[in-house]
Amino acid sequence: MTDRSPVSLSEDEIAAVRSWVLHEDPHVLVLNKPAGLSSQGGRIKAHTLDDLLWAFMRSNGKRPELVHRLDRDTSGVILAARTKPAAGFLGKALQMRRFKKTYLALVSAAPEPRAGRIDAPLLRQEIGRESYMRVCAFDAPGAQGSQSRYRTLSASEDGALVELEPLTGRMHQLRVHMAHIGRPLVGDPRYGGALTFAGRAAPRLMLHAARLTFPHPEGGDRTVEAPLPADFDALRLAAQL
Questions:
Q1: Integer Cα distance of 39 and 184 in angstroms
Q2: Residue 35 neighbours by CB under 8 Å, 6+ apart
Q3: Which residues pair with 214 in a beta bridge?
Q4: Which of 16, 81, 118, 142 has the fewest CB atoms within 10 Å, counting from its CB?
Q5: Nearest residue to 217 via CA among 86, 97, 99
Q6: Could you give the CA distance from residue 130 to residue 126 in angstroms, rounded to a whole number?
Q7: pTM of this structure
Q8: Contact 28, 86 (CB under 8 A)
Q9: Residue 3: CB partners within 8 Å, gap ≥ 6?
Q10: Beta-bridge partners for 65
Q11: What is d(CA 158, CA 230) in angstroms, rounded to the nearest whole number?
Q12: Where is the Pseudouridine synthase RsuA/RluA-like domain (predicted)?
């Protein structure tokens, strides 16, 4: 576990992060991260989720450690380890692709075909102070093999609700893969997504980590789900999805 100095949190911040708990036991902590909160250090001078985990500091001065990350504007399930052995166990499980992550997203029209697998390598690019991913040739220098599954859950004249599963864990993978098949995510202008949906403004990237299944240090698998946030649900209902 990290030995960084504790971060001073306000009572409101402590109450907020505690309200996001979806599952808690001696080994793991699962939270429902709100959109707009960075998982770990960024350029914005505000507390990250990593900082807020000091609200769960143990008597020995250690606090939970994030096992994986979500993009700042992505909401939903995120996992932290409460002990050093749990962090080691879950880190290895993640490397061995034993996590199953299920996301929900809004797109402007149903994909064709309505379900499928995307196998498109990605290459990271730095443009100014921003990092981007783009689809590249399989043999391009620096290419990272990347696979995702998608499935259309419902569709209307205004758009579609899709379920996404990343089979690999590349930065921005789902966003770039869906743009690659001509269905960029609503609220994602970086990769060509529309800023309106069903006649309404899209307040952010419409991507939600809805469910996570992971091996538990005590044995067996655990599945934790996060309900749709209000902004996502409002757009979904506006499109009658």
A1: 23
A2: 72, 73, 74, 75, 204, 205, 229, 231
A3: 222
A4: 142
A5: 86
A6: 6
A7: 0.94
A8: yes
A9: none
A10: 81
A11: 19
A12: 27-180
| Segments of 63-179 assigned E as strands | 65-66, 75-81, 100-107, 115-119, 122-127, 130-135, 147-156, 159-166
Which candidate, 227, 226, 99, places its Cα nearest to that of 169?
99
Q: Where are the beta strands (DSSP E) in 28-146?
A: 28-33, 65-66, 75-81, 100-107, 115-119, 122-127, 130-135
Whether 139 is catalytic: no
Structure tokens at 34: 């709100």
Whether 105 contacts 152, CB under 8 Å: no
> Strand, helix or coil at 44?
coil
Name the nearest CA neighbour of 81 among 100, 66, 60, 62: 66
Catalytic residue among 3, 25, 51, 71: 71
Which is nearest to 171 in space by CA: 66, 75, 68, 65? Answer: 68
Looking at residue 8, its amino acid is S
Rounded to 10 degrees, what is the CA torsion of 77, 87, 172, 202?
Answer: 20
How far apart (Å, rounded) are the C-alpha atoms in residues 115 and 162? 9
CA 109, distance to chain mean position in Å, is 22
C-alpha 75 chain-centroid distance: 6
pLDDT tens-place string over residues 181-224:
999 999 999 999 999 999 999 999 999 999 999 999 999 999 99
CA–CA dist 40, 180 (Å, integer): 27
First to last CA, the chain: 43
Give bridge partners of residue 163 from the DSSP assignment.
Answer: 104, 151
